[in-house]
Amino acid sequence: MGHPVFIGHDGSYLLKFNDWFHHYNHWFPKLFWVGLIVTFSFEVIFFVQTIRFGRKELGPTLNQAQWTAYCLGALATGIVFWAVAKYYLDDPLYLMTFLVTFGMCAPATIALMVRRGTRTGVGIRQMWAYLGIGVGYVLLTTGILRGPFTAPVWIIGCIVCAALAAIMLVFVYRLPDPGDTRESAGQPDLLSRST
Q: Could you tell me which of 175, 71, 83, 193 has the C-alpha nearest to residue 121?
């Protein structure tokens, strides 16, 4: 459940409206702010759906009240630790932290795909969009913004994110549709193409 960190990241960016529209007054943070309205809205919706419908899969031994308390505690923890990390990262424009949060999506999504064994909750277009966002951000930072975004550690981070996005794309193509049951589709082997 990655919602808490992403809600912390995107919510804190949205709260800095004055910085983006008055202090920096540049098209890029303004555009990013508008885009994050959409992603933040999705994150909140996904979080609420996780509370309402995720207990059976993610917390089957908890009752609904315990599951709700766990989710709200995870949200508070994610927001607090996001604030701590953000404070010490010295990244006022969120340029570095976007790559970090982007990279954090993949391990959770890969684990979800492997656990479910179908495309339930993930789609081919979604994975192509994820790869496109990552490639676009890498090209923006390394090709246009340059400076610290040409350092070897940044390039390594970009390569890892691109590799994880490619792995997710391969996995989603190899997974059966959600309508297929494990009995009828067989357990998918995500690492080798079966015929």
A: 175
The CA angle 75-43-46, to the nearest 5 degrees, is: 90
The pTM for the full model equals 0.77
Integer Cα distance of 100 and 96 in angstroms: 7
Question: Which of 86, 68, 72, 69 lies closest to 10, judged by CA?
Answer: 86
pLDDT tens digits, one per residue of 154-195: 999 999 999 999 999 999 999 998 876 554 445 556 655 554
Range of 48's domain? 1-92
How far is 165 from 122, CA to CA, in rounded Å? 13
Tokens of 185: 């589709």
Residues 181 and 136 in one domain: yes
